[in-house]
Amino acid sequence: MHLCDLEKKEYLNCLKSFGHQSEKCRHLSKKYLQCRMEKNLMAKQDMSELGFGKEDDLEDSKERVAERINDRK
């Protein structure tokens, strides 16, 4: 089974790109954990129990907007 491999690879590549500074890759960590929960690879939990809060949602939306802008260029 290779479920969530794409999310895992994105996260690991991000870590490598940023010298293993995990705070720069939190949005991908969250995405990976959400994938694992959706595929029943781990127990479903509230993201706040995993260290993600409302401010992370705001950062995620900012990140998505920035990605869309970069994709258009």
UniProtKB/TrEMBL annotation:
Pfam families: CHCH
Keywords, comma-separated and alphabetical: Disulfide bond
Domain of life per record: Eukaryota
PROSITE patterns hit by this protein: CHCH
CHCH domain residues: 4-38
InterPro entries: CHCH
Protein name as it appears in the record: CHCH domain-containing protein
